[in-house]
Every structure is written in C-alpha cells, then in structure tokens.
Design brief:
6 helices, 2 strands
C-alpha cells in the first residue's frame, strides 16, 4: 500500500519482479545443466529449491540476510562434496549418503531454531486491489 501511495505501480513492480525471477531461474537452470554437470538428468537440482526457500525464511525475507544464508548453505554443499570418501579422525570413512545430507541436515536444524521467529510479509501471495477514493 505504501508503494501505491508513493505513486509507483504495484502491478508493474510485481510483473518486473516475476520477469527477473524467470530470467534468473532460467540462467541458473542453464548453468546447472551445462557448466556444473555438463549434461541433463532427471532431478538434477536435488532439492536446491527447498534450500532456497529455507534461505529466504532464515533470512527473514530480507535480501542481504537471505544471501548470507545462501552462502552458508553453499558452504555446507562444498563441505559435503569435499568430505566424500575422506577418512575423518576417530570415525573413519563416513557413508557417502550421510555426507551428502549435510546441507539438508543443516537446513532443518537452522529452520527448527528460526522458523518460529521469522514472520512472513503481510502481503505475500495476496492480490493487490487498488482502492479508489
């Protein structure tokens, strides 16, 4: 409502955000299938959308905090790819499945502590209806 009061078109802003979202999603999908893996396979995203949603919740719907959460989850992803097959002190070689689940376990643990404190924006998912006075 404050955006509309300032004279900015809410619907145009939402459509611009939707277009940017589609462009970024397309670029990331192209990167994933060509640069990172060099081929396309079913379910290649492996739940990354879940991690992105968790990053938004963990970042309390603020872009900078969400970016920091994404960096944290990316660090966990990098750790899991480096630890596969590496003998760890005391425990030895940990099963690959457990190592691969590190980013998802971290996500669940973090959200369990923060999801109750995060409040979604009031207008999320609500259609904008301009009031005429």
């Amino acid at each position: 409502l404050a955006v509309d009061t300032a004279g900015i078109s809410v619907n145009a802003t939402r459509y611009k955000a939707l277009i940017i979202n589609g462009i970024l999603g397309g670029i990331s999908g192209a990167y994933l299938s060509t640069a990172q893996l060099a081929f396309f396979v079913k379910d290649m995203s492996a739940g990354k959308g879940y991690l992105a949603l968790a990053a938004m919740i963990f970042g309390k719907w603020r872009p900078f905090q969400a970016m920091l959460a994404c960096l944290l989850f990316a660090f966990a992803e990098a750790i899991q790819s480096r630890l596969q097959g590496v003998p760890l002190p005391i425990v030895g070689v940990v099963p690959v499945q457990l190592i691969q689940s590190i980013p998802y376990i971290l996500t669940v643990v973090l959200l369990a502590g923060f999801v109750g404190k995060a409040v979604a924006p009031k207008a999320i998912g609500e259609p904008f209806i301009k009031e005429h006075k």
